[in-house]
Amino acid sequence: MIEMNLNLPLEFINFLETNKELDYNPDEAYPKKVKFHKLEDLKREKIWIDATTYDVNLNIINVIQQAYYELEAVSLIEECDRYSEFGILCWLPELKKFCSWDIDHWVLTLFPNATWEDICNDPVSYLNAQWEEDYCGVGEIYDPSGTLPLIIGRPFE
Asked: pTM value?
């Protein structure tokens, strides 16, 4: 059953329904070959952004304890040849934006203006963005301060 309220773009839904794949050379992408989830398997999941590393307003908290932000994302990749597939390419239902989430460092690279067509036209840039210093020119670090509540501690404590 398809989870409601994912706010997925119609172009992406059509892509999944026709069983298409991204057209790119896997040797140029850090995750190598990727395979997408089936539409009915997509779901919202919680992801976290490490506030102590990336929020300059937390000088006092940085010294004392850890903090993070939490939001929901839809991880679009079911499997890949390298790295954990979770987060490599995601959809943020509330923001209606594509992104990449670094599961090891809790950093969210937002693709603020990307359409599904943009990703299909240049998949390597989007698949590699979280590993490149300039985010391959397609992304930027998402700053949730001021829009999401700051949570002190860690979600699994």
From this structure: 0.90
